[in-house]
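User: quick one, sequence for these tokens?
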């Protein structure tokens, strides 16, 4: 379905290249602590504490899967663009590890590029999922003295774009059928299964600030665009998979001070509650992630799977979009929404919340830690705005 956006759609433009922007991750044991220093910069966390939370990287050889996945996504985007005869090179830059965004922007400028269109590996509205990327670009342009020389725009958040949602429909249906078959084979009720949509927990204050510029124009579930977008996407998925199937939204990968409220319930607590209520099988859908990041491989495939084994729950985890052809094609469609050549006028959305807007209103998804330059806000290119902290992948 389509719904009107509350912020004007950006006029199509002529772009020189695509910037695939992501979180980044270590690629060896020696990288782990320097990477975690980057992630937690400005918070004064000692290396001893960082080492305590590095175990999931250490057990994987110090390697995060995210960089290899981004290389694969970059190649898939290049192939899709070439298949459509769209002559836009794809650059790749990370917030927290090599290739770093400032160096990528400098290289782009040196290569003669003057206007980039950014696609991020985050589908939802939040500080860490949208604004922090825009701040990183703003800071990088300032750091490299390219502000006013190199322009960077960003595609809309795509939580309900068919290219993102449809791979989850396929994967959820397959996992649900698998768990039901396993339960039946064990002589258990095939109907005693629950679908859990899992996403990264964020501080409650950040969640309530997500989409904050829209709050006067519309209502969000739990007063949060971040929460509402996940619930809407999950509802759209289950409407196609099985409208009668029970499901819930749960959270994972919490970090930070214990006294600071974060979104709940934690997936492992929710699993224990389901088992106590008689549920015998669980399908976990990593709805908050575009590919099998460390949070998926560790928090879901390892910790949640172990919790299910301890509770006697049959477990299966649905796939992330990764390089699914529909996802890759959808990202190129999002690019074409913003380009003059190969322009796509229609903006599909599978929930009533979308299609989300192109350019954020000032203060949208604001956070609470000083000021940083930011790009892509109504009426400004790079300006100083409220900044903050958070998690993103």
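Assistant:
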């Amino acid at each position: 379905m389509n719904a009107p956006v509350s912020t004007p759609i950006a006029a199509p433009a002529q772009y020189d290249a695509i910037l695939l922007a992501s979180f980044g991750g270590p690629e060896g044991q020696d990288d782990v602590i320097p990477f975690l220093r980057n992630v937690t910069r400005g918070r004064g966390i000692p290396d001893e504490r960082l080492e305590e939370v590095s175990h999931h990287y250490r057990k994987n050889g110090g390697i995060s899967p995210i960089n290899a996945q981004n290389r694969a996504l970059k190649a898939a985007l290049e192939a899709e663009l070439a298949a459509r005869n769209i002559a836009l090179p794809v650059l790749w830059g990370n917030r927290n590890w090599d290739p770093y965004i400032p160096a990528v922007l400098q290289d782009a400028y040196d290569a003669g590029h003057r206007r980039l269109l950014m696609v991020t590996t985050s589908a939802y509205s939040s500080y860490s999922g949208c604004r922090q990327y825009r701040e990183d670009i703003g800071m990088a342009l300032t750091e490299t003295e390219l502000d006013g020389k190199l322009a960077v725009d960003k595609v809309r958040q795509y939580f309900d774009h068919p290219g993102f949602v449809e791979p989850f429909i396929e994967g959820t249906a397959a996992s649900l059928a698998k768990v039901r078959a396993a339960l039946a084979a064990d002589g258990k009720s095939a109907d005693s299964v629950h679908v859990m949509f899992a996403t990264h927990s964020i501080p409650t204050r950040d969640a309530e600030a997500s989409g904050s510029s829209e709050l006067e124009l519309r209502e969000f579930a739990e007063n949060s665009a971040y929460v509402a977008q996940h619930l809407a996407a999950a509802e759209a998925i289950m409407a196609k998979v099985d409208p009668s199937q029970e499901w819930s939204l749960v959270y994972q990968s919490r970090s930070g001070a214990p006294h600071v409220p974060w979104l709940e319930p934690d997936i492992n607590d929710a699993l224990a509650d389901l088992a106590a209520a008689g549920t015998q099988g669980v399908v976990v859908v990593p709805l908050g992630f575009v590919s099998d990041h460390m949070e998926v491989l560790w928090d879901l495939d390892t910790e949640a799977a172990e919790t299910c084994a301890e509770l006697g729950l049959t477990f299966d985890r649905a796939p992330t979009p990764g390089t699914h052809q529909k996802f890759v094609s959808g990202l190129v469609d999002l690019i074409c929404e913003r380009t003059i050549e190969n322009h796509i006028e229609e903006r599909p959305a599978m929930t009533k919340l979308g299609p989300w807007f192109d350019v954020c209103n000032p203060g949208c998804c604001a956070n609470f830690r000083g000021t940083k330059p930011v790009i892509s806000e109504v009426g400004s290119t790079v300006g100083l705005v409220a900044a903050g902290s958070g998690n993103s992948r």
